[in-house]
Amino acid sequence: MRKIPQFTTYLLVAGLMAGCNGVDFRTNVGPYAKSRIASAGVREYSPVEIGRYDAVSLGFVDSSACQDRIDAPEPERSDLVRKMKQRVHDMGGNGIVVESCGKAALGTCRVHLECRGMAYSVPERQSRP
Asked: For residues 10-36, b (16+ Cβ closer than 10 Å) or e, as one string?
């Protein structure tokens, strides 16, 4: 087996790097990962659970989705809740109480799903048992 001189290896690597100069890779991994991380940092509470904390209400959040074509997937509650959690995170919150999720009539949609909730800033420890 013939050994490649070290200088040749350096030239080959430098040539490959120069050949890729100016190449721009675009992907949706950044926004996708950011949204997943944001929603993972927001916990869903029941109305009873949130009452055990001295949580500060930050306001209402909502989300909706429309299935406008028969071959499109039907909207799912989990997707809408994840979107609301992203909004809660953007508001500076870390908790949400989903008050309602249900199908609503909308003329252009085969299925229209809406979810509504309240965003909270929740302390780490419960103040009441």
From this structure: eeeeeeeeeeeeeeeeeeeeeeeeebe
